[in-house]
Amino acid sequence: MTLRGDDAEVDVLIVGGGPVGLTARVLLERWGVRSLLVEKHRELSPFPRSRLVNTRSMEIYRQLGLAAPIADKAFAPEFGRIRFRDTLRGGDFATAAMVGLNAPIAESPVLGVVTSQDRLEPTLLAAATAPTRFGVELVDLSEEADHVVASLVDHGRGTETTVRARHVLAADGANSTVRQHLGIDTAGPGPIARSTTVVFDADLTDWSAGQPAGVYFTAHGGFLPLYPEGGWAWIAPTPENAEHADWADLVTHALGPGTDVRAKVLRVEHWTVNAFVAERFRHGRILLAGDAAHTIPPAGGLGMNVGLADAHNLCWKLAGVLQGWAGPDLLATYEPERRPVAERTLQQAVANAQLMYQAQDRRKEQLEAGDASPDGVELPWSERYFAQLGLVLGVAYDSAAVQTETHTAPDAGTGTGTDYVPTPRPGHRMPHLWLTPGRSTLDAVGEWFTLLTPDPTPWERQASAPWPVRVEPLPAAHADLCELTPQGALLVRPDGHIAARWTDGPPDDAALSHALTSVTGRQS
Q1: Which is deepest, 43, 131, 164, 310, by most CB within 10 Å?
Q2: What is the number of other CB atoms lying within 10 angstroms of the CB of residue 21?
Q3: What are phi and psi of 176, to 5 degrees?
Q4: Ranges assigned E (strand) in 174-329
Q5: What's the confidence (pLDDT) of residue 9?
């Protein structure tokens, strides 16, 4: 690889070209931060992999102007559902809606979507112009006083190049080269299963029409519609002697007895179901994100989305440090904010898997008792279980990047997976409220701090330099919901989480600058 001179030194080297790395590249470019992304594979992944972009992730993409193009390539909302069947052609013995995907919710201005990762990634790649280098692998890195030196190898050309970066964002997957190089251990069950994804073509319309779903779980594996225009994937435990398997025959057998459909196999991928969280998310100027920091089993579609939130949390902090309006200690808030979320998400994913296995076990018991009716299977979850809104929208941060109110105790963790109660307390995601028709409080968030207040006048006199700050009028009708008097205000971070709140207005002329100094760790 021949790097241009302006690539040999960058602000941020992004390692890994999956959804997390690509999203970080877009976010950093919006902040004006120079980045270089390297990916050891020669192209974007051709496999569907992650299938669900949840509500919070779509809020992030709405902020970046990408929600509409992502939704345009995704399935219709009625596919936001899972179905349990004995075989794909049989009737449901259990089903659950994915709240936040299958119908609008009052808590967000957007819907999550069911879409395949190989449809998402090209949209993300096209959304920024920062240089990317596919087929280039990071093989070594060393940290010096004010930068990191990375050695990159282009395996196609057999050349090695050195890049100097102020920081490294490692989003290079569960088997992260960066994490292993740094000697960072992981905690958790680790590898828990081996699975195989078979991408195939077949006309299964008669078996799924009228009862759409993002995934159909059967006794012989899961079947997933891949794209609105067609295509399927079958996911099942990797069989013994997989290298000699007749995958078309296995898929046909999994479809059920009497099947006259022959699958045309296009691609096969073997993969490991991992479950762990890295013991550290940061080593000096090197930061882990996505699967490099935490690998979540696929049940519930949580893993990729947690990684996207990592990038959203981290990129504004990197921009602040690099541009001088934040102190270097701001980066120290990344791990205490994101690692508890990863741990809670891992617990939730394991719980999701257990509940799905329980549903299948109960159906097996029913069949063994001679009852073939698909009705009457007692579901092991509540109707709103798969909402997971408490985990998706209810994340609460407790760190130096949040100004804790003296009269309240800090929130702990993320609450429960199911329940979400909007709150204007510092640390929480700003509640979605309509500022004007079609424009949410979340739409006021961007590459700046947002101060929301019913009365901007006393706040506009507050000095905010050198921080990027915008004052946004909050409709008086929302003041009570935000627990504000007419002159009160909420200070919202660039990632949409509330940094500070003044219920009764500014206590002095330096209230805003004091809060920003505290939140960003910038020394005057």
Answers
A1: 310
A2: 28
A3: -45, 120
A4: 186-201, 215-218, 221-227, 230-237, 264-278, 282-283, 286-288, 294-295
A5: 94
pLDDT of residue 382: 53
How far from 269 is each of 235, 238, 275, CA to CA, in Å? Answer: 10, 10, 19
pLDDT tens across 24-73, in order? Answer: 999 999 999 999 999 999 999 988 889 899 999 999 999 999 999 999 99
* List of E strands, 22-135: 35-39, 52-53, 81-85, 92-97, 113-114, 132-134
CB atoms within 10 A of CB 180: 12
Residue with tokens 């490991």: 272
The string of pLDDT tens digits covering residues 248-300 is 999 998 998 878 888 999 999 999 988 999 999 999 999 999 999 999 988 87
pLDDT of the residue at 1: 39
Mark the ranges of the chain whose per-residue pLDDT is less than 50. 1-2, 4-6, 407, 409-415
Q: Would you state the structure tokens that stand for residue 512, as one six-digit string?
A: 């805003």
Tokens of 72: 């345009």
Here the tokens at position 361 are 């076990």
Neighbours of 423 (CB within 10 A): 18
Q: In what order do the strands lie in the sheet with 489-492?
A: 469-473, 449-453, 489-492, 498-502
Strands 35-39 and 113-114: unpaired
Reduced to 3 states, what is the DSSP secondary structure of residue 376? coil
Amino acid in the structure at residue 431: P
- Count Cβ atoms below 10 Å from residue 293 Cβ, excluding itself: 30
CB-count exposure of residue 241 (10 Å: 0-12, 13-18, 19+): exposed
Give the up-direction half-sphere exposure of residue 193: CA atoms within 13 A in the CB hemisphere: 14
